[in-house]
Amino acid sequence: MVDPMWGNGIGWLTNLLAGGKTEVIEVHNTRNPIFPDMSRPEPIPPNVNAGLQATVDQGADVLVIFDGDADRVGIGDENGNFVNQLQVYGLLAYYLLEVREERGAIVKTLSTTKMLNKLAEIYDVPVFETGVGFKYVAPKFLETDALIGGEESGGYAFRGNVPERDGILAGLYILDMMVKLNRKPSELLDLLFSKVGAHYYNRIDTPFKGDRQDKINRILTSNPETIGGLRVNELITIDGYQFLLEDGGWLLIRFSGTEPIIRVYCETLHQDKVEAILQDGLKIAGIE
Asked: Which of 30, 53, 84 is the last residue of a domain?
């Protein structure tokens, strides 16, 4: 299944994969700048729900999702479950390092997965962390001749291609990984987690009132010993305020640059602590 979200990704996988054994079925495959049934064409829930349901209804092996201009990718597994962007980044890095046996630096924003750091240790490659946004990823990607660069929004760049996000190539790499390893997406995730441990992620965006600097001062002086019941090891301020936790996970608090919104993200090895970490993040930021 392919969901190009009414945009530029329409027809690409159908044309590229035609003539073989692969059957490609598209949904939302007519150009429509109004982007019906979704607030904006981002490859994340709930925008992807129609494609996930179609995957189950059609008995498809995988759902590949493109945003409106096809520079970002999302994945759904064979059971209609969304594979989040951090998991996709882990899969792409594992594919390049293990399946293709390539080596090179990994460039990541601090809001994406620590699974990349673990893979880098296993395969003895460097990791470079940047601020959030491809305007930070691309220069470091070029500077280090990186193997892959990416961000939490689902945009990934690859060595030998343009130093910019390419959702179509990323989708093809996931499909090739499925073929090479003869595994469906849920099985690929199991394989990845067997290497680096299961990682769980979520994010809350919430409006706030009052002075931004007051919020920042509150965060900087909070000095929490624990977040979500996990010990805080370090505070990173490259872009926003990232608290590194004892399990190797993290909580990140960032302010939107264009509107009064606080974004609270977390990744942890403890599925049952995700909500508690996010709620503690809101409290640290003064959002009760």
From this structure: 84
Q: Which domain holds residue 135?
A: 86-167+190-196
For residues 215 and 143, membership in a common domain is answered with no
For residue range 52-86, what is the model confidence (pLDDT) as tens digits? Answer: 999 999 999 999 999 999 999 999 999 999 999 99
Q: What is the mean pLDDT of residues 145-174?
A: 97
10 Å CB burial of residue 179 (0-12, 13-18, 19+) is: exposed
pLDDT at residue 241 is higher than 80: yes
Q: How far apart are CA 173 and CA 64, in angstroms?
A: 11
Task: Give me 48's structure tokens.
Answer: 């992807």
Mean predicted lDDT score pLDDT of the chain: 96
- 140-144 contacts: CB < 8 A, separation 24 or more? 140/107, 141/107, 144/104, 144/105, 144/107
E strand residue ranges, 162-245:
200-207, 226-227, 230-236, 241-245
Q: Is the pLDDT of residue 288 over 80?
A: no
CA separation for the pair 40, 29 (Å, rounded): 16
Quick one: pLDDT at residue 266? 97
Other beta carbons within 10 angstroms of residue 8's beta carbon come to: 18
The answer, yes or no, to whether residue 160 has pLDDT greater than 90, is yes
Question: Which CATH number goes with the domain that contains 109?
Answer: 3.40.120.10
Residue 78 contacts residue 185 (beta carbons within 8 Å): yes
- Distance separating alpha carbons of residues 168 and 174, to the nearest angstrom: 10
Domain contains 173 = no
pLDDT of residue 257: 79
**Do 228 and 238 sit in the same domain of this protein?**
yes
Residue 177 within a domain:
no
Amino acid making up residue 255: F
Q: What pTM does this model have? A: 0.95
Angle (nearest 5°) at CA 244 between 241 and 245: 135
